[in-house]
Amino acid sequence: MAQGQMAPGIVSGRLSSDELTSNFTDLHPPLAPHEAAVAADRCYFCYDAPCVTACPTDIDIPLFIRQIQAGQPQSAGRTILEQNILGGMCARVCPTETLCEEACVREAAEGKPVEIGRLQRFATDDVMASGVHPFERAAPTGKTIAVVGAGPAGLACAHRLAMLGHDVVIHESKPKPGGLNEYGIAAYKSTNDFAQAEVDWLLKIGGIAIETGSVLGETISLDGLVENYDAVFLSIGLAGVNALRTPGADKDGVRNAVDFISDVRQASDLAHLPVGRNVVVIGGGMTAVDAAVKSKLLGAEHVTIAYRRDRDAMGASRYEQDLAASHGVRIMTNVQPVAVHGNGSSAEIELEYTSSTGGTLTGTGETIRLPADQVLKAIGQQLDGAPDGLTLEGNKIAVTGAGRTSLQSVWAGGDCAAGGDDLTVTAVAEGRDAAMDIHATLVS
């Protein structure tokens, strides 16, 4: 068998269809109108609201909560969507516990913030359910912009450009638009094909065409886009995955966590999705937690997250760590993989304990072996195939201002661009701001 294919111990049907349906229900059920009113009443409507400062998209949070309190969820939704056109998805997946809700005055005073994320979902869901798009296009400008990548940054950029009267063509390599929202978000955070529904709703602005199967460096080139469009926005994400450089990393049963998450997201029947009995996830970020929790929800008996540093250094928030623990996931810190053992297929993983002195990580020489018929790598992603001519910063596209690259008429944003956090909400802000800068450049 080739790497990543099914191996002994990785089987489907560990749980019944009813159990799987129950496991993959909404992590945070939507608020009923009365619940939303009660939650909104807890807001102090601070004048210098720290929650707004903490929001990467600068949503006027006190205003939209006051609008909910006044019984105007449509107005509240518009307030959110003016700043964050993917406010519905962000309400579901944004780490509000470390952003707006952590900054909430109620959190500081009582240890219980206003439920900003759930209130945002209440308002944006109401707008989407109405079937009416809240924004209209400006008069046509005659300009056409190419957006490469239909993820959060690309969609946000395209929508804002279309709203300003430009025509936009989105070039997307995958069969469906949405990027990480479609392929990389935990299925229990975004249920009922919400990612696709949000894209369909966003496109109601008009002026946006999506060409799937359009791959930069294969079917299209940056030079060709620059020649044929008035501007180009790159939101190509991070398609490459860092290698697990240990003996046995090529054994069957070892695969990338992002591919595993994508398989769960795209599965038409979870009962047919294989998962190991003993799963070990290497990494400490949100992807590691999502992969670990999904493994447990699919019926894996023992799931362990193995991270090389201590818990405080984990990329996943403490809330996400606690979420994993609440589902029975074991979190081991200060351990790093040194070998995957097994006869052709993974059977055990050998981990070495680590220590950190002055920020330098070293192995102690002491090791432990865990049963592992499935090993999921969540050890970071990297830019794969950056077009020639672009200046890089580290392993990402260098940008200045609102996403300007080293090439004239080319902007970039989202995970592929240097400087920002790899969050959906940050990608939306970067796409929106780049669109405004593109607009200002084209009409000046």
Strand portion = 15-25%
Counting structural domains, the number is: 3
Q: Which structural category do the helix and sheet elements fall into?
A: alpha/beta
The share of residues in helices is 25-40%
The end-to-end span amounts to 58 Å
Keywords:
444 residues, alpha/beta, Fumarate Reductase Iron-sulfur Protein, Chain B, domain 2, FAD/NAD(P)-binding domain, five-stranded parallel sheet, 17 strands, 35% helix
Structure, described:
- The protein is an alpha/beta fold and about 450 residues long.
- The protein folds into 3 domains: about 100 residues, Fumarate Reductase Iron-sulfur Protein, Chain B, domain 2, CATH 1.10.1060; about 160 residues, FAD/NAD(P)-binding domain; about 140 residues, 3-Layer(bba) Sandwich (FAD/NAD(P)-binding domain).
- About 35% of the residues lie in helices and about 20% in strands.
- The protein is built from 17 helices and 17 strands.
- The strands form 5 sheets. It has a 5-stranded parallel β-sheet with strand order 3-2-1-4-17, sandwiched between helices. The chain has a 5-stranded parallel β-sheet with strand order 6-13-7-8-9. It has a 3-stranded antiparallel β-sheet with strand order 10-11-12, with no helix packed on it.
- The protein is globular and about 65 Å long.
